[in-house]
């Protein structure tokens, strides 16, 4: 029964401290503030583990546990708490900030001298009802240093409170509660010893929970930043990137002006409304399902893209990264977005120019070579149809290059319409075109091309001109197993037809 009592009294608070340490460290593993705070919580948990162990094996090794374990962890906690506050209040960055490091010298010396028994432990009071150790001068000095650090923390917290630091108010309340609790329990344990109320001494460490909760709450609200609200607002309002805070349902809690500009609405319209309201052209059911999956599993997103139509009718492409933050006790998705519409459109234009013929809009030689290599790699039979527009030079010389360009575009249109989406049409350059066709459709497509070319092409005014083209066909793999072989055979057959036409 006694073990159960001590377990509830000390192990539960120790676990709470470990939980706090894990939560803080998990939010930002690279921040020295978060690391220091996590270490502070862990060293505080050692205090409770030490007290539990001392009662569990009492009186064996009781003095050693109290001196080395319990007082050592308390001293380390005191050092870490002071260091944490100095970091959070940006004290080290002030003009004489380096001098604050001198405050740690007494504590470090105190911890370093703990191994000296005669200095830390004077002896035992054998006349006491229970074996009780008598602290040495070193241990008394260490206690004084610990309380001094608490006093320094209180003093600095008051200074920060006067500057409007909201986090400092929480720290001050937590430290003051810890101080009052500890003094009350210590005085009570002395006055009530050897009475039925002497159990009050068991509660001495529990005051640290007030302080721990205050620190954890300040993390949740202010993320340990001095003048956080002012800095956050400057970043929020002036950041070239859009900043967005959303909950699991996609409701916008905060949004920077840049986000409102992207969506084509005012900031007032955006706050406390679903982000889906402003994303036209997006599969909303799929979007919210994915969003909730990411949220529930805390999946961070990097370089993701979203394309939509905003409220002004513009097509927008946003690139975004996301993470999760704890704000006022509630988890929100923190999203940073950037408008990449112009860059994406430029990229599409560059890609188009790289693989398309500017005059006709057909695929160019580079795209044709990629496509034919794909077909060859599949080992499937296909036909390569080579076309050459007859007498283009004569058209250019007699009617001008504009008429020649018109003739090329006219033939390109015929090829595009007859080939459709199932086949590939390309302009290789000049008056030379190529088709990659399914062998079952080749004959009918060539007939259709000849029929369409036979229709006179309209020139300016009432003038018309009838075009003709020479065609050569090669078949993979019967006429060749590589591109050059197929092209050579088709080219030869095309010129044979051209020669026959001249005759």
Automatic annotation (TrEMBL):
Keywords per UniProt: Membrane, Nucleotidyltransferase, Transferase, Transmembrane, Transmembrane helix
Molecular-function GO terms, alphabetical: diguanylate cyclase activity
InterPro entries per the UniProt record, alphabetical: Biofilm_reg_signaling (IPR052155), GGDEF_dom (IPR000160), Nucleotide_cyclase (IPR029787), PAS (IPR000014), PAS-like_dom_sf (IPR035965), Rev_trsase/Diguanyl_cyclase (IPR043128)
Transmembrane segments: 6-25, 37-59, 65-87, 99-120, 140-158, 170-193, 199-220
Entry protein name: Diguanylate cyclase domain-containing protein
Keyword Membrane annotated: yes
Cited SMART domains: GGDEF, PAS
PANTHER family: BIOFILM ARCHITECTURE MAINTENANCE PROTEIN MBAA, DIGUANYLATE CYCLASE DGCP
The protein's Enzyme Commission number: 2.7.7.65
Pfam families xref list: GGDEF, PAS_9
Domain (PAS): residue spans on this chain: 228-298
PROSITE patterns the UniProt entry points to: GGDEF, PAS
Domain GGDEF intervals: 380-503
């Amino acid at each position: 029964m006694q073990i159960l009592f001590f377990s509830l009294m000390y192990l539960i608070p120790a676990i709470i401290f470990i939980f706090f340490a894990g939560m803080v460290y998990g939010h930002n593993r690279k921040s020295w503030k978060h690391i220091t705070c996590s270490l502070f919580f862990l060293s505080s948990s050692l205090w409770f583990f030490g007290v539990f162990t001392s009662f569990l094996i009492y009186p064996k090794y009781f003095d050693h546990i109290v001196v080395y374990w319990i007082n050592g962890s308390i001293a380390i906690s005191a050092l870490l708490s002071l260091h944490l506050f100095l970091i959070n209040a940006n004290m080290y960055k002030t003009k004489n900030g380096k001098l604050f490091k001198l405050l740690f010298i007494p504590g470090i010396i105190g911890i370093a001298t703990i191994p000296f028994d005669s200095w830390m432990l004077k002896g035992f009071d054998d006349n006491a009802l229970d074996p009780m150790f008598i602290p040495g001068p070193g241990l008394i000095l260490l206690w004084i240093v610990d309380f001094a650090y608490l006093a320094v923390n209180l003093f600095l917290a008051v200074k920060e409170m006067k500057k409007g630091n909201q986090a400092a108010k929480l720290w001050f309340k937590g430290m003051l509660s810890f101080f009052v609790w500890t003094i009350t329990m210590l005085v009570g344990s002395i006055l009530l010893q050897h009475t039925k109320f002497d159990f009050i001494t068991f509660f001495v460490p529990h005051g640290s929970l007030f302080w721990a909760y205050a620190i954890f709450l300040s993390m949740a609200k202010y993320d340990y930043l001095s003048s956080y609200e002012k800095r956050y607002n400057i970043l929020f309002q002036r950041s070239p990137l859009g900043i967005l805070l959303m909950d699991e349902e996609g409701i916008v809690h905060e949004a920077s002006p840049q986000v409102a500009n992207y969506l084509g609405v005012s900031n007032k319209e955006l706050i406390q409304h679903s982000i889906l309201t402003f994303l036209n052209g997006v599969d909303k059911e799929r979007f919210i399902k994915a969003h909730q999956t990411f949220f529930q599993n805390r999946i961070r997103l990097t370089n993701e893209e979203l394309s939509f139509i905003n409220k002004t009718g513009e097509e927008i492409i946003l690139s975004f990264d996301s993470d999760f933050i704890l704000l006022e006790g509630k988890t929100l998705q923190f999203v940073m977005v950037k408008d990449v519409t112009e860059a994406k459109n430029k990229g599409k234009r560059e890609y188009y120019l790289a693989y398309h013929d500017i005059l006709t809009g057909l695929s160019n030689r580079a795209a044709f070579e990629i496509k034919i290599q794909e077909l060859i790699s599949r080992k499937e039979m296909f036909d390569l149809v080579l076309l050459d527009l007859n007498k283009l030079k004569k058209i250019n010389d007699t009617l001008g290059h504009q008429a020649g360009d018109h003739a090329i575009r006219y033939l390109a249109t015929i090829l595009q319409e007859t080939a459709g989406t199932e086949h590939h049409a390309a302009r290789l350059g000049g008056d030379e075109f190529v088709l990659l066709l399914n062998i079952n459709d080749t004959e009918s497509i060539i007939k259709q091309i000849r029929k369409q070319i036979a229709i006179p092409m309209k020139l300016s005014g009432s003038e018309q001109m009838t075009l003709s083209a020479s065609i050569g066909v090669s078949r993979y793999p019967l006429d060749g197993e590589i591109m050059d072989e197929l092209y050579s055979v088709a080219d030869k057959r095309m010129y044979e037809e051209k020669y026959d036409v001249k005759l």
